[in-house]
Structures are given as structure tokens and as C-alpha cells.
Design a protein that fits this description.
Oligomer: single chain
Shape: globular
Mean pLDDT: 96
Low-confidence stretches: none
Number of helices: 11
CATH superfamily: Alpha/Beta hydrolase fold, catalytic domain
CATH architecture: 3-Layer(aba) Sandwich
Helix content: 25-40%
Number of strands: 9
Radius of gyration: 18 Å
Distance between the termini: 30 Å
CATH topology: Rossmann fold
Number of domains: 1
CATH class: Alpha Beta
Strand content: 15-25%
Length: 296
């Protein structure tokens, strides 16, 4: 898994390899790539004095792996651990001083990784998205009536792949402006504008292999979340329709030390990715959190 990742390390100004730096691993949203929101936050963290690592998920973006756009929770969680492996041996990094930031889908996977990987001394999420629950139940439980139908489709797709047939994909076509405008949720409408227009990148795509649903639909980022005993910061826009996922996870993280739910006032889910005033709020809170729990 680690071998097919293409990580990017961002170093603070004045970086000296013979010094001792705290490091932060950043996990990107579903469909995103490191040149978008995860890269922006990585740059802001580096300005605070941290060595930061960010990478496209395996099978996605600039990272390797075939077939393309496999999207399995185990891969994403292993990617986070793999980034920790890599940054732990990076010159100047104190391997006992590593933090973790997960954004959107990367936030859910960060919660899962941190449950057992205690190299992460402090854990933060931004606009956390519980990918497995949404893939199973639909966003805001909008897909409950089609669970078995979609599992049948995923099973058939797996069988086709195994026999050497065509790889089938979910969300493989770009919606039109008119279709996007009719989407029932802010997250999806604003996500269309962000990923397809204002912050489009050729490596970014919403499509994923249909067979991935066999793993995704059995996943819940909050399963075992009481094993997180590290300091935990969960940030979410006060107007985000995804707020319910952060709220649920936060309350289930009963053993997290010094946990905090931080509202970014006025922001929706996607607006926390790029709107300057909301990024500034989130960055300032991350600075306070990581400076308190990691030693610069």
C-alpha cells in the first residue's frame, strides 16, 4: 500500500534537517486530491512550523494502483498509517510528535486510524464525512430503500471484475448545471461548484468502482471510536448539512482526552474548504490545538 502512494511533504520556512520538528498527516476528502483543500490546509500548517505530509489516496489522483478509483476504507486507513511511516523517518521530524488532520471523508478515516495507531498524539477533523454510513444509507438516510439493490449491483460488479470483465463505476458521469442545481443537499450542490468549477483538478473525480461498495457499505467510522484516547478536535460549519455526522461521532468518542467540538460560524460543509474567513477560523483553531498538544 505505501509503495503506490505519491506523498508530498511541505516544510516550514527555515527548515533545518538537523532540528526536531513536529509533523502532521493530512487526509483528503473523498474524490479530492492533494492540490485542493488538503494541500491548502497543509500549507497553512507548515506556516505554523510543522512538517506536513499529504498524499492522494492509493488508486486515486497521482498515486498508483489498478483499477483506478478503487475506494475502500481499508485502503484509506492504511494510507494514513503509511503517511505516518513515511514522515516518521523524514529528516528533522520527531517521530514521537505526530498529529493527524482528516478532512471530509478523510476525517472519518482519520478517526478510524487513530483508534489503534497511537503514533498520532493529537487528532483533528474538519467537516467529517462518515463515508460508509452514507454509501449504505444515503446522505441524511436518503437511500435506505435501495440498500439491497445496490449490494446486488456491487456483488455483480465484483464478479465481473473477477472474471476479467469491465470495471463498473458509480458516479462516473459529470452532472449538468441544471442537474446540479436540483440536487437536494447543500453539500452536493456546493461540491459540484467546488470540484467541477472553482477548484477543478484533472486528477479529482467522484467516480469509484462499484465493487468498492462491498467494503464501503460495511464501514462505519464510529465503530470502535471509544478507543480514541488522544486529544480530539472536531470542526464543522454551523450551517453544514453534514453537521449530524460530526455531532454523532463527537458524542461517541467517550474516552478522547480534552475533546472539543468547534463550530465555524456561518459556514457550510464545502465553504470550510476555501472561503477565506472560514479557512482562517479553522486554521486558527488548528494552531491552538496542535500547538497545545504537539511540541514545536
Amino acid at each position: 500500500m505505501v509503495l503506490i502512494l505519491m506523498p508530498m511533504c511541505i516544510r516550514p520556512a527555515g527548515y533545518a534537517p538537523n532540528s526536531s520538528y513536529a509533523a502532521i498527516v493530512v487526509a483528503h476528502p473523498n474524490g479530492g486530491v492533494k492540490e485542493q483543500v488538503s494541500g491548502l490546509y497543509a500549507q497553512n500548517l507548515a506556516k505554523m512550523g510543522y512538517v506536513v505530509i499529504v498524499a492522494d489516496a492509493s488508486y486515486q489522483g497521482a498515486s498508483g494502483g489498478l483499477p483506478r478509483n478503487v475506494d475502500k476504507p481499508a485502503n484509506r486507513i492504511e494510507d494514513i498509517r503509511g503517511m505516518a511511516d513515511y514522515i516518521s523517518s523524514y529528516k528533522g521530524v520527531n517521530a514521537e510528535n505526530i498529529g493527524l488532520l482528516g478532512i471530509c471523508g478523510g476525517g472519518g478515516y482519520a478517526l478510524s486510524a487513530a483508534q489503534t495507531d497511537k503514533r498520532f498524539k493529537a487528532v483533528a477533523t474538519l467537516s467529517m464525512f462518515n463515508s460508509g454510513v452514507v454509501r449504505r444509507n444515503g446522505y441524511m438516510n436518503s437511500g435506505l430503500s435501495t440498500i439491497q439493490q445496490r449490494l446486488d449491483q456491487a456483488s455483480a460488479a465484483r464478479a465481473t471484475e473477477a472474471s476479467g470483465g469491465e470495471v463498473r463505476y458509480v458516479a462516473a458521469t459529470k452532472p449538468t448545471d441544471e442537474e446540479a442545481a436540483k440536487m437536494p443537499f447543500d453539500l452536493y450542490r456546493e461540491g459540484y461548484e467546488y470540484y467541477y468549477k472553482s477548484h477543478a483538478h484533472p486528477n479529482s473525480t467522484f467516480r469509484y468502482t462499484m465493487s468498492s461498495l462491498l467494503d464501503l457499505m460495511a464501514f462505519d467510522a464510529t465503530t470502535g471510536i471509544d478507543m480514541i484516547d488522544q486529544p480530539l478536535l472536531m470542526m464543522v460549519g454551523s450551517k453544514a448539512d453534514s453537521y449530524y455526522m460530526t455531532d454523532q461521532a463527537f458524542h461517541l468518542a467517550t474516552n478522547a482526552k480534552k475533546k472539543e467540538l468547534y463550530l465555524i460560524y456561518g459556514a457550510t460543509h464545502i465553504q470550510t474548504y476555501y472561503v477565506p474567513e472560514y479557512v482562517t477560523q479553522a486554521t486558527g483553531k488548528l494552531k491552538d490545538f496542535f500547538n497545545k498538544h504537539l511540541s514545536l
